[in-house]
Amino acid sequence: MNKLKTYSRYFYEYLKHWDILSIIASARYLIFKTSHKKDRIIQTSIGKFFCRKNTNDFQYANYRYEWGVKKFVLDNKHKFNVFIDGGACVGEYCILLTKLGVRCIAFEPVIQNYDVLKKNLELNNLSASVIAFPYGLGEREMKAPFYFNRVNTGASHIITDAKTPDCLVEIRTFDSLLPQMGLKHDDRILVKLDVEGMEPEAILGAAGFISRFPNITFVAEGKHSGDDLIKNALKNLASFDFGIVDEFNIYATKKQITQSN
Which of 29, 60, 89, 247 is deepest in the core (most CB within 10 A)? Predict the structure, then answer.
């Protein structure tokens, strides 16, 4: 029933913009794990998106994609003025939120995805508004072997076995890039982490950020790493209140320290 509801939402969004090709591509992906045969640009409720041939980029561009997370972000957008997307893929969250007046910072380590993210920012006239880094986030700085999923491009991930990598990506700590972000102490910051199992490492690499900035909320996917590892990584750095976003994601809001007289 949940899948039917999800697909119905996707279908409605495609139909609203007369994007019949994405409806056909969705069916092809569900049945054959393949997609449309030519590059194209589509219009969605978020904006314009470049969709690579033989990929499901069109799915990420759909306003209803990851609706549980998107609804949480939109329902709470009055609580933050900065959005940081760890694992931005094609940039849909940053495009959506920048248009709503939120300052956005994106991280996408896979160069094939990063190039599309930059192209999508151009298509929406947002290149000057979003800071985009071509790095993954981790506990230490390194070059990491990655598997690039050529159809489901957002599922690309670090390789930990002996498999031959499709590419090498640069992993940086969040703290090492803080000087380039221009964050202010009183910024209200929402960090979305969807880094295919590296969420705990990305958090540990942001220890300085977490200690210095008081108004932080994380939305983190625990599908691969597990919720407990994410919670423990955060609890070792500061006090957080935790809650559930949807079946794959949790949120964590840093507790405010009150001064006693």
Answer: 60
